[in-house]
Design brief:
This protein is α/β, with parallel strands linked by helices. The chain has 3 domains: 2-192, 3-Layer(aba) Sandwich (Rossmann fold), CATH 3.40.50.720; 193-275, N-(1-d-carboxylethyl)-l-norvaline Dehydrogenase, domain 2, CATH 1.10.1040.10; 283-406, NAD(P)-binding Rossmann-like Domain (Rossmann fold), CATH 3.40.50.720. The chain has 15 helices and 14 strands. It has an 8-stranded mixed beta sheet, with helices on both faces. It has a 6-stranded parallel beta sheet with strand order 11-10-9-12-13-14. Helix 1 crosses helix 3 (50-59), helix 4 packs parallel to helix 5 (121-132) and helix 8 (194-225) crosses helix 11 (272-282). The longest helix has 32 residues, at 194-225. The N and C termini lie far apart (52 Å).
Length: 406
Amino acid sequence: MINVIGLGYIGLPTALMLASHGNEVVGTDLDKGLVATLNAGRTTFKEDGLKDLFGEAVRSGIKFTDKYQLADTYIISVPSPYDNFSKKVDPRYVISAVGEILTVCAPGATLVIESTVSPGTIDKHVRPVIAARGLEIGKDIHLAHAPERIIPGNMVYELVHNNRTIGADSKEIGDRIKDLYSSFCQGEIVVTDIRTAEMTKVVENTFRAVNIAFANELCRICRHDGIDVYEIIRICNMHPRVNILQPGPGVGGHCISVDPWFLVGDYPSLAKVIDESMKTNDSQPEFVLNRIHDIMRENNLTDTKRIGLYGLTYKENVDDCRESPTLQLIKAQERHLAEPLKVYDPMVEKDLVCNQYHDFDRFLDDIDMVVIMVKHGHLIDNMEKLDGKIVLDCHNICKLPGVYHL
């Protein structure tokens, strides 16, 4: 039996996928409300294909509880935040989950850590917890690391089709966990050691963060000299060995905006490019705020209450607002003591900020200028409704005349 610990954005889809492919699965989460919602037959976030997968898993016998279970395999998918000051990973949730598992697990059980951690976290924080219980790793308990590689908005597809990495202390355990994930994963699964698996996941997201930072910095350079950054990128990307990403209003989510800081925290004297790249991305919402003020002055707009932000989520077509650039921009605006901007997002049902609208037409009626922070499909389908508004397009998707860009 498999006990999946943590039923958030990664743990829940993983548990459902395992159950729907013939594995006996119990999902555990300490949030009783979340567990009650799942047991009532409802998913806890929006995701393409998740409802169908949920129904299939329920028919296959998956169970949800707030209690740790007796099992031979545990998949730990709990949060791994970082400390804002030290930039180091905070492993307390992983440590806590491991400690709880050791009180109930079967002899010889395997603990698979899916949570993204900085390189060396399992050596420094997980192994000592096991050793303190008098248990021998490799005999009484086995360890593996299987970092996820999926993105909100396309999780169900990517769980099946993306390649994966399994880190383990021995080939035997690595191959066994590989067989487990192979029950649903059609991508290539590479088995390596734990430290390498830890590093590869963080490096993948760091590579993307650095590329985004380059695009954002290029955007600022082109803005300074009055050059069209999108035309520059289009032409440069015609080179067979160049692939510059697109600039945007910032970086959000719980991977690209977080994982690179693990390397900065652990290697402060070495990760210089990474450090500067993260600072560039983190300051991009402030850059957007400055663009808003410049455009307001150019158009003689004096009332920030007539400015609207379209999009609260960190990316398009999801309801995930973790590390959202829009929320970062709103915090930056609060520091300037300005009137709060109006906000609308079709994917977000709960009120997260003041002046948040839930009716698109009423939102547009109450603003003179709209800032496209997120390129939801909803906006693309309704782009003509922005005609007559002053538009700051942070994603280069609006083809109406007179649109401003970053």
